[in-house]
Structure formats: structure tokens, C-alpha cells
Amino acid sequence: MQLRSILLLGSISAIFVVASAIGQSPERTPNIEEITQWARSGHANIHSESFAHWNDAGEIPPVCSTCHSGAGFRSLYGFDGSTPGLPQSPIPVGGVVDCDTCHHPGLPSVTEIRLPSGTQHPVVGAEAACMTCHQGRASTATIERAVAESSEDEVNPELSFINPHYAVAAASLLGGSGALGYQYPGKDYQQRFFHARPVSTCVGCHEPHNLTVAEETCATCHESGDSRAIRISRQSFDGSGNLEQGIFADIVANRERLFALLAEYAREIAGTAMVYDGNRHPYFFADHNGDGLPDQREGAPVPYASWTPRLLKAAYNWKFVGSDAGIHVHNPHYALQLLFDSAEDISNALGRDLTGMAR
């Protein structure tokens, strides 16, 4: 209750800050309802890890500031009068995704964004802000550069886990056209996933201020407004044959299956058992004694260091699919393709055929 009260007071304070900035009292501020919704959203939560991570340092590195502060975002596109590109110096802490991030008059001038794959992707309106900050930080090209000419199943001590980053909704939405998952050579991948025209953009489904999903919009075409209950395919991908469950369940089942294969490969081929802890970077840790717990060194868990190129590619895809909580809506078939191809590759290395999964 105390924490909730503190956060609520912070939201109310944010409303007064915005009102003061435009010379109005809260009672007379235009769009007060939208501002109130924003102030209670994750985009305004100055205490969240997304914005507070650098508090001890007192400044946000330029490469991080472009999405973790409004000032950094405006600098990226030159809205503050600077030359477009990464800020020339760190940005002070204390900023959030503020009103001017998504409502700056210069935003319509951004007609394409550069993805981690190097691709320039066209954007329209507010989509520029959404896709700039939810595209992740890695791609097929990132993984390929890391593994270079290394043998697929040879442990390379110079390799470490490559994190796709967080809340990668735009990355999954763009699918094969963005190549932000690891895409195996010779495979075809679902391109950008388009819903019907009324929900073809980010704000077609997401209320832009409080960030909630408009379930009533789903119910326009689907029997349920619960996205996890919606199935858009008459094929079973997880081997269950259950076509009554939402496609979300197929993705969850196949992701669990892939992790079991990753763990087996790590133990049997890479030579070191691996455990995952989603609350600690770099997430994958060594488990030499096989007790299911991370090894400890000086009171800290030991990062996994027995990466092979094959293991890194599949683990990246496993994490990528899990880094978008709405991937079952944004691009379910892209998720299923990444999971299947990764599981198939790991199974081949283990000397067996992959059964019970479909692409």
C-alpha cells in the first residue's frame, strides 16, 4: 500500500510538472485525461528500471539515452536542434518517455528508421517513436559477426550471450523483413505481420497513453478479446493437436521444448550444464555440478562461458521470443519459425530428428 501511494503521488506530481511546462493549471490543462493516463503508465514511471538504472551514475550513456529519456530521443532525430544521431554526450538522469517524445512536431518528418540489421524500414507518424525504441539491439547480422568462422560445435571462450534487449515488439512485428531474430540460412520467414487495416499500426491496438490493449478491438473480428485465447491457424504447431487453444499455447510449449534441448546440448556437447535466471544479466549461468543452481564465485553467479556458435544462435532466438510478451499477436508465425529452426538445428547436433513440433 505504501509503495502504491508513493507511485500515485509521483504520477500526480508528473501531471503538475507537465501542466507547469505548458503554462496551465492541472484543472485547465488541455488533454488532462490523456496526461493522467500517461502519468500512471510505464512510460512515465521514473522509478522503473527502464529509467532508474543509471541513477547511481547520474547520467545515461548516449546509446541508451535515445530510448530511455525523451531528451535522448529528440537528440537522435535532431529535434533539439542538434545534428541527428547519437547524442554527443551523456544525458542526465531523471527523464522518461515524455509527451514531446511522441507528440513533437518534427516526428512526421521521420519516414524511416534504421534497424540493428542495417535495414532502413519505412514508418508513418507515431510509429516512428514506437519502432525506434522497441526494435531490440541485435539481429541475424549481430550473431553472424560474433560467431564469424568458428566451428558450429566448438566452444569459443570469446563468445558470450548476446541479448536481443527488452520489449522487442517492433522487432517481432517486422519479422523476416527486419531480420532481428536469428534467421537460419536457406529458410524463409514470415515478413511483417499485418492485421486488418484498423489495427495495422501500433496505436491501432494499444492505447498510446496508458499502454493498455483495447480488447474490444480484438472482439471486432475474433470470438474473444483475450489475445491468448485467439487462434489464427488451423494447424497444431506443438504436437498436441489441440486447435481449441490459442496460438499463444503453441508458442509457450515450443519454447519450453527448445529450452530443454538447449540444456541437453549444453550438457552433452558444450560440456557444461546451463541454468537460466531471468532476473540477472547475462541470464545464462554455469552449473558445473549439475545441481540446477548457478555456480557461485565470490558470492556472485558465474556467467555461462561454454558457448558454441550453434548454442548461441538458438539461445538468442529462445530469449528473443520471450522478450516480447505480445509476440503471439505481433507475429506468431515468426515466433514459431524461429523456435522450430532453432530446435531442429540443436536436435541435428544431438543426432536425432525433431518430432512433435511443426513450422
Short characterization:
By secondary structure, this protein is mainly α. The protein has helices at 2-21, 32-39, 49-52, 62-68, 70-76, 99-103, 127-133, 140-147, 169-174, 202-205, 215-218, 247-270, 309-322, 327-330, 332-349, and strands spanning 59-60, 91-92, 112-114, 120-122, 274-276, 284-286, 296-297, 300-301.
DSSP summary, beta strand count = 8
Q: Main beta sheet: strand number and arrangement?
A: 2 strands, antiparallel
Q: Strand order across the biggest sheet? A: 1-2
Structural class: mainly alpha
Strand content: 5-15%
What Rg is obtained from the alpha carbons, in whole angstroms? 22 Å
Number of helices: 15
Order of helices and strands: HHHEHHEHEEHHHHHHEEEEHHH
Notable features of this structure?
359 residues, mainly alpha, two-stranded antiparallel ribbon, 15 helices
What does this structure look like?
The protein is mostly helical. Among the domains are: 1-40, no CATH class; 137-271 and 306-349, no CATH class. It is 39% helix and 6% strand. The protein contains 15 helices and eight strands. It has helices spanning 2-21, 32-39, 49-52, 62-68, 70-76, 99-103, 127-133, 140-147, 169-174, 202-205, 215-218, 247-270, 309-322, 327-330, 332-349, and strands at 59-60, 91-92, 112-114, 120-122, 274-276, 284-286, 296-297, 300-301. The strands form four sheets. Strands 1-2 form a two-stranded antiparallel sheet. Strands 3-4 form a two-stranded antiparallel sheet. Strands 5-6 form a two-stranded antiparallel ribbon. A hairpin with a 5-residue loop joins strand 3 (112-114) and strand 4. Helix 1 crosses helix 2 and helix 4 (62-68) crosses helix 5. The longest helix is centred in the last third of the chain and has 24 residues, at 247-270. It is globular. Residues 1-12 and 19-24 have low confidence and may be disordered.
